[in-house]
Amino acid sequence: MKYKKSLIAILVVLTLTIVSIKTRPVDAQELEQQPTVAIPTVTGTPEGVTITVPLDQEYVNVRNGPGTLYDLVGRLVAGQKAAVLGRSEGGDWLLIQYFGGPDNQGWIYAAPVSLSAGEVSIVEPPPTLTPAMTQTINATLAAQFITTPIPTRLATFTPAESLVIPTYVDVSRTSLAGSIPMGLVILIVGGIGAILAVISVIRGH
């Protein structure tokens, strides 16, 4: 009987202890989760000024300087965009971010591309490359191949004398017809014919 009373007393004490723990107010700070590392804040960066190659342009050349004398380093195709880093003094050429060029940069001609709104600062262009070897021509050797053309005299044209074609006139017919009447000629011919006929008749007898 004494053992049962002791067991009941222990159970009552445990029950009161559990109830007191559950009803104890919990500090809000204890329940907050304290981060062990700093959580980075994601912030957007402005896109800045960009260029876009129009769709009607097949491509635009990218060079290592603002001019056609600079070397070609690549191309941008139609629809491609690139960030603008600067411009030439006149604004005809734009410095863009181009991976594969010197310092991942390149220059393009501004006329065929579309430029977004924004301020673009002037950038000092790189120096133009000079050829390592300048070709020189030996003046003495070149003089051997210089020839003076000999003037060719053109033939002079002398016009030929005009050809005169003579006109022939039947003088006998015209003179005879003009001096002797045709009737007299007929009579003479007829008379000669009659005489010849008489002679031939006489010879026949």
From TrEMBL:
TM segments? 180-202
Keywords assigned:
Membrane, Transmembrane, Transmembrane helix
For whether the record's keyword set contains Transmembrane helix, the answer is yes
Name all SH3b domain ranges. 46-117
Q: Which domain of life is it from?
A: Bacteria
Gene3D superfamilies (alphabetical): SH3 Domains
What this protein is called in its record is: SH3 domain-containing protein
